[in-house]
Design goal:
The chain is α/β, with parallel strands linked by helices and 246 residues long. It contains 10 helices and 7 strands. The strands form 2 sheets. Strands 2-1-3-4-5 form a 5-stranded parallel beta sheet, sandwiched between helices. Strands 6-7 form a two-stranded antiparallel sheet.
C-alpha cells in the first residue's frame, strides 16, 4: 500500500490530469454566443453548435455574450469568472471586434492600435498564468456588398491587429475574417443572405415583423462558420484537432 501511495506521489501531474476532460472556453460577442430557443428563435452563434464537433474528452464552455467587446467583457467581471474556472491544459478562444469598433459608446469602444491590442495581450497573459492555452480569432465578417455586388470589409484595422498580436505573442490564430469573407464571396450577394438573419414577416413567432440582419448568424450560418473554425483548428492547433470528430 505504501509503495502504491509513493508511486502516485511521484507520478507527473500531467499523467494524473489525463483522465480529466479538457475545456475550451469561448470568450467573445454575439456572433459566438448561445441564443435562446424560445418561439423558434432563429438567431444562433457559432459557439452554440461548436460542441457537436468534438469527441468525448472535450467540453466547450461558451461565455460569449451579445454586445460585448474586449473592454466591456473585462469591465463587467466576465473575464474574471472565466479565469476562476480555467484549469491547466484548457484552451481559451478569444474573438472580439464587432463592438470594440463602436466609437460613440465609451463602455465598449477600444481603439485598435492601443486599447484593443493591449486587451488582447492581457487575455493571453491571464490565460497563460492559469496554465491555459490561448487562441486568437479574427472577427467574422458582416455581410456587406456595394452596388457592383463586390464584398465590402467593415472591420477596419481590427483583424490585422489580431494577426499581429497572435504573431508577437506566439499564439495560434484562427483567421475567421479571412475565411468568412471567402465564404460570403463564394455564396455571392444574394446567396449569402441565408447565412444571416434574413427573416420574412410571420416566419418566426419571435420575429413577427421579420428581420434583415447582416451581422448575426442563422442556424445554417452558425454551422457553416463552425465548419470554418474546425478547419482552422485542424491547420493551426494540431494537438486540439485530434479531438475533432471525423
Amino acid at each position: 500500500m505504501k509503495s502504491f501511495v509513493l508511486l502516485i506521489f511521484l507520478m507527473p501531474l500531467s499523467i494524473l490530469w489525463q483522465g480529466n476532460d479538457i475545456t475550451i472556453f469561448l470568450v467573445a460577442d454575439s456572433t459566438v454566443a448561445d441564443k435562446p430557443y424560445k418561439d423558434g428563435n432563429p438567431e444562433k452563434g457559432w459557439g452554440q453548435v461548436f460542441p457537436l464537433y468534438f469527441k468525448e474528452g472535450i467540453q466547450v464552455d461558451n461565455h460569449a455574450v451579445n454586445g460585448r467587446s474586449t473592454k466591456s467583457f473585462m469591465d463587467e467581471g466576465r473575464w474574471d469568472k472565466v479565469l476562476s474556472l480555467i484549469e491547466p491544459g484548457d484552451y481559451v478562444i478569444i474573438e472580439f471586434g464587432h463592438n470594440d469598433e463602436k466609437e460613440h459608446d465609451p463602455t465598449r469602444y477600444a481603439d485598435p492600435d492601443n486599447a484593443y491590442r493591449a486587451n488582447l495581450k492581457k487575455y493571453i497573459a491571464d490565460a497563460r498564468a492559469k496554465g491555459a492555452k490561448p487562441i486568437l480569432a479574427t472577427p467574422i465578417v458582416r455581410r456587406k456588398f456595394n452596388e457592383q455586388g463586390e464584398f465590402v470589409e467593415s472591420h477596419g484595422k481590427y483583424p490585422q491587429v489580431v494577426r499581429e498580436v497572435a504573431k508577437s505573442e506566439k499564439v495560434p490564430l484562427l483567421d475567421m475574417q479571412r475565411e468568412t469573407k471567402a465564404l460570403l464571396m463564394a455564396y455571392g450577394e444574394e446567396g449569402s443572405e441565408k447565412l444571416f438573419l434574413h427573416i420574412k414577416p410571420g416566419e418566426y413567432p419571435s420575429l413577427p415583423e421579420g428581420r434583415d440582419d447582416d451581422t448575426h448568424l442563422s442556424p445554417y450560418g452558425a454551422f457553416r462558420v463552425a465548419d470554418l473554425v474546425a478547419s482552422e483548428i485542424k491547420k493551426n492547433v494540431p494537438e486540439l484537432a485530434s479531438y475533432l470528430k471525423e
